[in-house]
Amino acid sequence: NFESKSSYAIRLQTKDSGGLTFEKAFNLQVSNLNETPTNISVSSSTFNENIDGSSAVASLSSSDPDAGDSLTYSLVSGSGDDDNSAFTIEEDQLKIIQSPDFESKSSYAIRLQTKDSGGQTFEKAFNLKISDLNETPTNISVSASTFNENIDASSVVASLSSSDPDAGDSLTYALVSGSGDDDNSAFTIEGDQLKIIQSPDFESKSSYAIRLQT
Question: Nearest CA to 30 among 3, 11, 6?
């Protein structure tokens, strides 16, 4: 193996039928041949959702018996190449084209090839996982924006719900200060139920302005 030992030193003797001898030392050189790369590695097999498009998600490296050989990388067709089109490669950087969203796609399957300076190649499939990040709720809804006068005090006037990118996330509600909070003090919240504290009377007050937080 040239990479572990590139030459050998030996000493030979020749002897004739009369017992006379001659000795000489030799140095034998091993010719270095281009050998095929043996592996491809990614610096990380997970990355966060919501990173910018064109972000580098991993650095690529190879194992090659030829120390110092020049290696290039590409996405190639074959088993495990389902999501090759979602990535590009620049030198040894694997980049995702569009910002990833865990809720719509939680993993990517790609197939990579490394090629050395002599044209020898090695291919390997990878499964890259997306890390789910907690994302901000995007909306609050009330089941009804009208209710009758003269209902009992502490009656439920609406159920509250939220839009949140994180499916199944646990959500709570509160009345908070800010624009539109004029009548917050007229209500309470229990769980996802908005309740009016006093029985409403249309003739004295026909609408309420509140500000909710989820």
Answer: 6
Nearest CA among 212, 193, 203, 207 for reference residue 147: 207
Residue labelled with tokens 């979602």: 86
d(CA 177, CA 210): 9
Those residues whose C-beta lies under 8 Å from the C-beta of residue 55, and which sit 6 or more positions away, are 47, 95, 96, 99
pTM equals: 0.74
DSSP 197: S
CA proximity to 91, closest of 53, 55, 61: 61
144-184 residue pLDDT tens: 999 999 999 999 999 999 999 998 899 999 999 999 999 99
Contact (Cβ atoms closer than 8 angstroms) between residue 132 and residue 102? yes
Query: Which run of H or of E encompasses 130?
Result: strand 121-131
- The vertex-48 CA angle with 139 and 51, nearest 5°, equals 75
Amino acid sitting at position 177: S
Half-sphere exposure of 86 (CA within 13 A, CB side): 17
Half-sphere exposure of 150 (CA within 13 A, CB side): 1
Residue 212 phi, psi (nearest 5): -110, 150
For 71-127, write each residue's pLDDT tens digit. Answer: 999 999 999 999 999 999 999 999 999 999 999 999 999 999 999 999 999 999 999
- Find out whether 28 and 10 touch, Cβ atoms under 8 Å: yes
